[in-house]
Each structure stands twice: as structure tokens, then as C-alpha cells.
Write a structure and sequence with these properties.
Layout (H helix, E strand, L loop, with lengths): L9 H13 L2 H22 L6 H31 L5 H38 L7 H33 L6 H11 L5 H9 L21 H36 L1 H7 L3 H35 L11 H33 L1 H22 L5
Helix pairs in contact: 1-6, 1-11, 2-3, 2-11, 3-4, 3-11, 4-5, 4-8, 4-10, 5-7, 8-10, 9-10, 10-11, 11-12
Length: 372
């Protein structure tokens, strides 16, 4: 029998959380700080041009990545206090609700901004005379992000309701939090789970782990639905961006002469197009790596039903694998994205390097340590 969360107890789940959050905190914490600082620089630089489409979308990605980083920063910091014995594990479990309400909207809204940016560029490259309807695109992005935010808030509320009202088996309390952390990446998944599986007044439910009743979902059927919905959620943006990238490559290679003849500042247009192509490539690579890692994690993990023969570190390593996909890969995207933007925009690059020099001078003056 393949391993899954139905075979583990709270002790195992605590070890998995330790591997996915605490063990990766030395990497997550500095990444989070750098992501916040870099994206604040991006947001402030493009703020004066916020009425334009591309700067507005770049600002949206930066803001979404800031929300993403602060949540992972909080979660990692709390895990250090918990697993070093300064806080009870309950604090870490409750912080997962905070992560769901603040960080996951940033992760998924970033996808909306990236899709809007990539599709808009592709349309412009295919038809150089096309001028995107900025107001319509802004309306689409705003609607998408607000829908995502409301769904994640609804998931947080649903998770709290499930815990307070329906979790009666204390030895599986942490396991339920682990379920919640895994499923909450898809906006609305927890809410739909509560609505579909909520017991009626007679105690019956449409979802059961084991049943011969054909009118209810078995554990296998419920897991298949979750995997299918999750696959659509993660694969559709990847495929859309992949198609856009193929088209962008074709037109960036073939239309350079036409653009130079048509526009008074062809270098600017091509420069922006290549920048967007680079960010789209980064989005594609990180999301493919995330999806591949999670599928591999689900499909290839060993049997854990005979837990007497498993070592303590097995669950920690299992958690590290999950944490790398769920926490580190999104942060790597958020870390590399501002580097691309800063390196591609000369004025921002000069301003940013100047700020680094001033900080190095201040740090050297205060501490006497030479950081250059």
C-alpha cells in the first residue's frame, strides 16, 4: 500500500512539519528578507508609472511577492521558537491559518499578474499595431486577485470551523493541520471540502474514508478529485505561459527589423519584450519544478505502514522534500524576479547599487567592518 497522510499520526506529522519548515528556515529566512527588500525597491521605482500597463503589472508582482515573503518569514521564525522548545507546537499550527490568509493570496495573485503580463506581451508581438486595453486588463487582474483573496480567507475560516467543530480525535489533530497546509494551495479547496463533506443533522456525510454506499465518496475517490483539481490549478498557468513563450521566441527572433522600422524607439520595445520573456521563463521553470517535485513526492514515497522499522529522520526528510516544493521554490522565483528587473533597467540598477554603497559605508562606519 502506498504511503499517504491517512497512515500517519500526530507524532509523525510534527516531524514532517519540522522538516518542511524548521529544517529549511536557515534558507527561508534570508531569502524572505531579501525578497521583501528587493520587491519594495521594485514597487517604489515603478510607482510613478503605475498608470501604464507593464509598470502596473510589475508592481503587482512585487506586491504579491512581498505578501508571500512576509508569511514565510513569520512561519519560519515561529518554527524556530517551537522546535527549540520556547513555544508550544500549537502556536506553529495556528500560524498556518495566518499563512493561508496572507501568504497564499500573494502566491496565487502573482500567477494572475504573470499570466496577464505574458499574454499581453504575446498579443502585442503578434500584432505590433495592437494596443492592449489597459482598463480591461486591470479589471480582469483586479477581479482575479480579489476572488483569490476572498477564497483564501474563506478557506481560513473553513479550516477554523473544521478544527473547532469536527476534529474530535486528538491524536490526529496535527495531521489535520498537515492536510490543511497541503490542500490550501488551491483557492477554495478547503471551503468546498467543508461544504461537500459537512455532516448532516443525522451525522451522515457525503465523504467517508471507507463505505460500501455508492452515494458517498471513498477515500480514493476524494483523493482523486483533489489531485485532479490541484493538477488543473497548477498546470493551466504553466501551459498558458509555455504557449506564450513559444510565440514570444518566434516573434522576438523574426520581427526585430520590422519593429526597428516601425517605432521611433525600437530598442525600448525589444528591451521590455525580452524582460517580460525572461520573467515568464522564470515563472515557467519554478512552477514546473514545483509541480514535478510534488507529483514525485506523492508518487514515489515509500510505504510507511510498518512504522516500527522506519528511522526518526525519515519523516523529517519527507517533510524537507515537501517544504522545498511548497516554500523554497516560490521564494526562489520571488528572489530572482527582482534581480531580473533591476539588472534590465539601467536607472534602477544605478540607484540600487548606489543604495548598497551607502548602506555599506554606513555599516562600515558603525561596526568598523569592511563589507565591500
Amino acid at each position: 500500500m502506498e504511503a499517504n497522510l491517512s497512515h500517519i499520526n500526530d507524532d509523525d506529522a510534527i516531524l514532517i512539519l519540522k522538516g518542511s519548515i524548521f529544517e529549511l528556515a536557515p534558507l527561508t529566512l534570508p531569502l524572505s528578507v531579501l525578497v521583501i527588500v528587493h520587491n519594495i525597491v521594485i514597487f517604489m521605482d515603478y510607482y510613478s508609472d503605475r498608470a501604464k500597463l507593464v509598470p502596473g503589472l510589475f508592481m503587482g508582482i512585487a506586491l504579491a511577492d512581498i505578501f508571500k515573503a512576509q508569511g514565510e518569514l513569520v512561519l519560519s521564525a515561529i518554527s524556530i521558537f517551537v522546535y527549540t522548545g520556547h513555544l508550544d507546537v500549537k502556536v506553529l499550527l495556528n500560524s498556518i491559518f495566518y499563512y493561508t490568509a496572507t501568504t497564499l493570496p500573494g502566491i496565487n495573485c502573482s500567477k494572475v499578474f504573470n499570466l496577464a503580463t505574458s499574454v499581453s506581451l504575446t498579443r502585442t508581438l503578434v500584432n505590433p499595431f495592437f494596443r492592449p486595453n489597459t482598463a480591461r486588463i486591470r479589471k480582469f487582474v483586479r477581479l482575479g486577485c480579489w476572488t483569490i483573496i476572498l477564497l483564501h480567507i474563506s478557506d481560513t475560516i473553513a479550516g477554523i470551523v473544521i478544527y473547532l467543530k469536527y476534529i474530535n480525535i486528538k491524536q490526529y489533530e496535527v495531521v489535520m493541520y498537515l492536510y490543511f497546509l497541503g490542500a490550501s494551495g488551491v483557492p477554495g479547496a478547503i471551503t468546498m471540502g467543508l461544504l461537500v463533506c459537512m455532516p448532516d443533522k443525522n451525522g451522515g456525510s457525503f465523504c467517508v474514508v471507507h463505505s460500501r454506499d455508492k452515494n458517498v465518496l471513498t477515500h480514493h475517490e476524494l483523493a482523486s478529485i483533489i489531485i485532479t483539481v490541484g493538477g488543473v490549478h497548477y498546470l493551466v498557468p504553466i501551459l498558458v505561459v509555455l504557449v506564450c513563450m513559444v510565440i514570444q521566441i518566434k516573434y522576438l527572433r523574426n520581427s526585430r527589423r520590422e519593429q526597428e522600422a516601425e517605432y521611433p524607439q525600437p530598442g525600448t520595445i525589444r528591451h521590455v519584450s525580452i524582460t517580460i520573456f525572461m520573467t515568464s521563463t522564470l515563472f515557467f521553470v519554478c512552477n514546473v519544478a514545483y509541480f514535478t517535485t510534488m507529483v514525485t513526492w506523492i508518487a514515489l514515497h515509500p510505504t510507511i505502514t510498518d512504522k516500527e522499522h522506519l528511522e526518526y529522520k525519515f519523516f523529517v526528510h519527507w517533510g524537507e522534500w515537501m517544504g522545498f516544493a511548497k516554500f523554497i521554490l516560490p521564494m526562489l522565483y520571488s528572489f530572482i524576479y527582482p534581480i531580473i528587473i533591476i539588472s534590465r533597467k539601467e536607472q534602477l540598477r544605478v540607484r540600487y547599487t548606489g543604495q548598497i554603497r551607502r548602506f555599506a559605508a554606513w555599516f562600515r562606519c558603525i561596526t568598523g567592518v569592511n563589507v565591500t
